[in-house]
Amino acid sequence: MQPGRINTETSSACYMCGKQGKIVYRNLADRLFGAPGEWTSKKCTDADCGIVWLDPRPTIDEIGKAYQNYYTHDQTNQRNKHG
Ligand SMILES: [Zn+2]
Questions:
Q1: Range of the domain at 12
Q2: What is the C-alpha to C-alpha distance for residues 16 and 27, in angstroms, rounded to an integer?
Q3: pLDDT tens, residue by residue, 15-67
Q4: From the CA of 2, how far away is ligand 1's center (Å)?
Q5: Is the peptide bond between 56 and the residue preceding it cis, with omega within 30 degrees of 0?
Q6: Which end of the chain is less congested by CB atoms within 10 angstroms, N or C?
Q7: Is 52 inside any structural domain?
Q8: 58 C-alpha to center of ligand 1: Å?
Q9: What's the domain count of the chain?
């Protein structure tokens, strides 16, 4: 495990219907998970499905870690800290 990195897994196929996704956004910043690195967003090629996901995506364990970072982000903003 490397500190400061999020473990990811490749997810080129739709997790709902299994079809291959096409890239809709590349090199996304970490707006979704507050995670380091860049993410590619893919969209399902099935018109009836059409969901969007991240590829690679954080593993289940890492999603918890990423959300922890996300929620503590504002709380660490201490304006009145001495020093
Ligand atoms: Zn799909």
A1: 8-73
A2: 23
A3: 899 999 999 888 766 555 566 667 788 999 999 999 998 888 877 777 676 66
A4: 32
A5: yes
A6: C
A7: yes
A8: 19
A9: 1
